Every structure is written in structure tokens, then in C-alpha cells.
Amino acid sequence: MDGTALATLKGSARDRFRGKNIGLVFQQSQFIRSISVLENLRLARSLAGLSKDDAFAERLLSELGISERKNAKPNELSIGERQRAAIARALVTKPKIVLADEPTSALDDENCEAVAALFERTVTGHGAALVIVTHDQRLKNRFKKSVSL
Amino acid sequence: MRMLRLAYANLKEHFLSTILSVMLLGIGVGMVSFIVTVSEQLNNRFNRDIRGIDMVVGAKGSPLQLILSAVYQIDNPTGNIPLAEVNKLKRHPLIKYSIPLSYGDSYQGFRIVGTDSLYLTHYQAAFAEGELWKHSMDVVIGSSVAEKLNLKLGAHFHGNHGFDKEGHAHEESHYNVVGILMPTGTVADRLILTSTESVWDIHNHEESKLEHYHQSEQETGEITALLVKFKSPMGIMQIPRMVNEKTSMQAALPAIEINRLYSLMGVGFTTLQIIGMVIMCIAALSVFISLLNSLKERKYELALMRSLGASPFKLFGLIIQESLLLCLAGYTLGIILGRVGIMLLSSLGEDQFQFSVSQSGIADIELWLLPLTLCIGLVAALIPAIRAYRSDISSILRNE
Predict the structure, then answer these.
(1) What is the pLDDT of residue B301?
(2) Closest approach of chain B CAs to the CA of A35, in angstroms?
(3) CA–CA separation, B75 and B80 (whole Å)
(4) Which conformational region is residue B44 in: left (phi greater than 0), alpha (psi within -120 to 50 degrees), or beta?
(5) pLDDT per residue as tens digits for the range A10-45
């Protein structure tokens, strides 16, 4: 991937490569509960070995419409807000590829639509490839390239 | 730095168990530092006051009481001894010098002790102001007395009979302050010293009013105790036995009595120290359990951090840092508690036993406790940290 053979990377080099190049969005968004949303984004950059970039983090949050929630603890967010914050975190390291696992399964139609639109807009807008694993028909209808197993 | 802040945030998130661990650690550390400091200072003070006194002669009774009253000025005297016998003893060739002590009065809780100038020489007490007593009823006061009672040179006061603060006042005993001593760090700081004759004068005066109860005593005179320094160790072999067997007086050896006192107190100190250590161990257990619990709760977070690029070692470090932060907080609390305890004891002890503990700078034990506490933190965090290190992210994330 990106000129690096993943199998050749060892231990923490692999961890770092993952943090830097792959953004992950989980089925149920996970955060570090003890720190705010913005600090979660900062942590993501720092763990990937990237320098601090609050301006970018805040731009992402405002693109996703949750910039006023940046100082809230993850538990204080609604599920929809949390999912959006998770997308922001996946993008804050400017990854080459974003992997999303059932990102919409916990959402109603309206939020599902919104998240899908966000994915399209933000992920592709930031020049990353997007891979979604889903059984959600609502999403399947939306994206053209799909691999069915 | 980021990890340290995260560790701090995590501790804040688990506020209650953090508080529990910090309190336990604090109490353990505080108790150990308190006990060690107090016993050290007690030792120091006891040894300072006892230095150079080989034997104490007084009335028959408890030898420990004799030592406590005559050397440390804390217990009541055992009684009086006739001057005739004392004078005979004083001439013994093995005695280098001896210091007479006579009690009777006190002023505001400070003892008025009749003695001679040797007492001042013995405790190397120099004059801050004034000079030695010349006449009966002239007194020289120790530095603490001057400070606490705010007595200046030339001040007058009436003594109380006995050692109580509210004894009946001798209207006749009109003392004049003629000298104030420099601080010596010994028992002399807390005494009002005067000539033996002053003590006699007051009480003979009293007794003459009480229809001459002890006519013979007036003729020969009495003192309360005699502090003795021997010329050679031979003195210890011969004189105490002689005094105890052939006179109506008692000889007590401070070194032996104080050792006995230590061995009595030592049991208490050791017990408290062990309790302090046990509390520290429980604190370690509490740190261990709370880390392990928070680890279970946070396994997704840890997996998440791995997926964000943290190496296993970073997670290991995070847990260790949380534990060390906890222990540092506990240590700080403990030092504060220990010092507050010492301050309380000091203010209590000053009134009741004229014993004050002072603490300046950092005590050795406080320095020792820091690495000890941090070690406890390391040991308690080791297993949780290894678990965090080994956590298998893919299996955790699969089971979310």
C-alpha cells in the first residue's frame, strides 16, 4: 500500500503506519471517554506521529456540523453526533484510505442518509479512498462500486 | 506529555476509586513519616538532655520517675533528700561534679528549679541578656520561658506552689528576672532557674507559718535530686550500689532507665509503623484493583488507541503513568498529613509534656518514602500494564 509492503513492517512501525494511513470508522463509535472530542482528534494525530493541527481538526468538525460540540465529552454526544465525530477522527490524520465497518447500522433513515452524504463529501473531498463494509441496503443503493460476498 | 495528560484525564474520570487509592496511600505514608519523625525527635531530645549525666540521686521510689523528673523535668519528683547525706556523697573521689536540684514552685506551668551555676555550664547555656543570680529570689529564665511568657529582664512574678498552672500563689515569693538564656535545644530552655537558697527561703518561710512542722529539715536543708558526673567508668560500678545500699537515697542511671523507656515506647512505635506499612500495602492493592477495573472498562479505548497508531508499549506506559501519578498524589497527601499530625502533636505536647516537635526542611524519612511509594506504584501497575500491552485489538474490536 502506497509503496509499502505491509507484511514487511514490524511491531510499532506497523502501528504507526496504520495510524497515519488508515482511518477507521467502527460500527459503534469508540472514543477515549475521559477527554473531549477535540482532544480525541488531537490524540489521533499524536498517536499517528503527526504534529498538532487544531485548525484542521476544527475545520473537519465544522464541516461535519459539530464544531460547537468540540469540548464535550464523547458520552455527552448523541449517536449521530458521535458517528460524525468518529468520521472526523478517521480523517484527521489525512489517511490514504478510510475503512468503515457498518457505519450506519445504528442510525435511522434520516441520519443514515446524512452520514452517507458526509462520507461521500468529506472522505472523497479529502482525497482518501473509502471502503465500507455493510449489509445496509440504504447504503448499497448509494454507492456504485460494490463487491458482494 | 500527551500520555501524561491522558493518564490524568483517566484518573479524573474514575474519581472515586482514585480518591480511595490516594487516601489510603496518603494515610499510610503520613503515618509512617509521622511515627518515624516523632520517634527520631524524641530520641534526639532524650539523648541531648541526658548527655553528660551519669547518675541521678534522689529519694527512693521509681527510678524512671526520678530520671523523668530530675533530667527531663516532666514527671513529679520522688521526694526530697537530706543535704547532709548529699554532701557526704559529693566528696566521693570518683565524682567529677554534681549539680543539686530543688523543686517547689512553678510559674505558668514552667518549673522553678533551685540549682547552682554548674547546671548552666552543664547544658552550655550562655546568657542572651543579664547575668547569673546574685541574691535569693533572683531567677534566670530559659529561652522558651522568656518567649512564651513574654518575660523581660527586670520583670517580677509570683510563683505558684506545685507544678499546676492554677496552684495557690505564694504572695511572698516575689521573683526577679535577672538573666535570660540563649536557646540550647535542651531542657534548660523550659526552666526558670534560681539558686537553691531561693527555694529554701520560700518554703522555710511557709513552714515557719505552719508551726514548724519539720524543724530538723530547716537546720540541715533538703534538696530534691542530684545530677552526678563521674570521673571514670569506675564510678558507675561502685557508687550507685553504695548509694542504694548504704543511704536513704536512691541512685538511678539515666542510660538504663531511658533504654527501658525506649523499649516500652518502641513496641508502640513499631506497631504503628507496621500498621502504616500495612495500610500502604492495602493502598497498593487498591491501586492494582482500580487499574484492573478501569482496564476492563477501557479495553475498547485501548484497542482504539492501538488502531490509531499507538504501540503496545505506549499503552503499557500509559497504565504505568496513571499509577505513578496516583502514587505521587498519595505521597504528597501523606507528607501533608504527616506534617499536620506533627504540628498538632507539637501544640498538644507543648502544653501537656513540654515536648515540642519541630520540623524544618525535608526529613530523611520523607525522602525515603518517595522512591518507596513510586515502587509500590510500579509493582501495582505491572500486571495491569502487561495486560494492556498484550491486549489483542482485533479480537476486542470484533466483539464490540
Answers:
(1) 85
(2) 6
(3) 14
(4) alpha
(5) 777 778 788 888 888 887 778 888 889 888 888 888
The DSSP call for residue B76 is P
Cα nearest neighbour of B393 on chain A: A15
Q: Which of left, alpha, beta for A42 (phi over 0: left; psi -120 to 50: alpha)? A: alpha
Q: Which domain holds residue A51?
A: 6-140
- Closest-approach residue (CA) in chain B for A52: B2
Give first-to-last CA distance, chain B, whole Å.
30
Measured between beta carbons, which residues in chain A are less than 8 angstroms from residue B18? none
- Do B9 and A35 count as a contact with CB atoms less than 8 A apart? yes
Instruction: Let me know if residue A147 belongs to a domain.
Output: no
Q: Which residues pair with B158 in a beta bridge?
A: B174
- Which residues of chain B neighbour A93 with C-beta distances below 8 Å? 308-309
What are the extents of the domains in chain B?
A: 2-46+266-398, 55-252
Residue with cell 569506675: B234
The whole-angstrom separation of Cα B98 and Cα B54 is: 10
**Residue B329, pLDDT above cutoff 90:** yes
Q: Which of B12, B298, B310 sits opposite A47 (nearest CB)?
A: B310
Chain B residues closer than 8 Å to A19 by CB: 307-310
Q: B294 to chain A nearest CA, in Å?
A: 12
pLDDT exceeds 80 at position B208? no
CB contact under 8 A, B309 and A19: yes
Domain annotation covers residue A105? yes
- How many domains are there within chain A? 1
CB contact under 8 A, B303 and A30: yes
Contact B2 A43 (CB under 8 A): yes
CB contact under 8 A, B6 and A11: no
Question: Do the chains contact at B300 and A30, CB–CB below 8 Å?
Answer: yes
Q: Residue A1 falls within a domain, yes or no?
A: no
Whether residue A33 lies within 8 A of chain B, CB to CB, comes out as: yes
Where helices occur in A49-135 by DSSP H, the ranges are 54-63, 79-91, 109-118, 124-125
Q: How confident is the model at residue B334 (pLDDT cuts 50, 70, 90)?
A: very high
Touching check for A133 and chain B: CB below 8 Å? no
What is the ipTM for the molecules in this complex? Answer: 0.82
Q: Could you give the maximum distance between any two Cα atoms of chain B, in Å?
A: 104
Is residue A146 one of the residues assigned to a domain? no
pLDDT in tens, B98-136: 999 998 788 888 888 999 888 988 888 888 888 888 888
Residue of A nearest to B12 (CA): A34
Domain with A68 in it: what CATH number?
3.40.50.300
User: Which chain B positions have a beta carbon within 8 Å of A39's beta carbon?
Assistant: 9
- At B311, give phi and psi (nearest 5°): -80, 160
Mean pLDDT (chain B) is 83
Spell out the per-residue pLDDT of chain A, length 149, in tens.
666 677 777 777 778 788 888 888 887 778 888 889 888 888 888 888 888 888 888 888 887 888 888 888 888 888 878 888 888 888 888 888 888 888 777 777 877 887 788 778 777 777 788 888 888 777 777 777 777 77
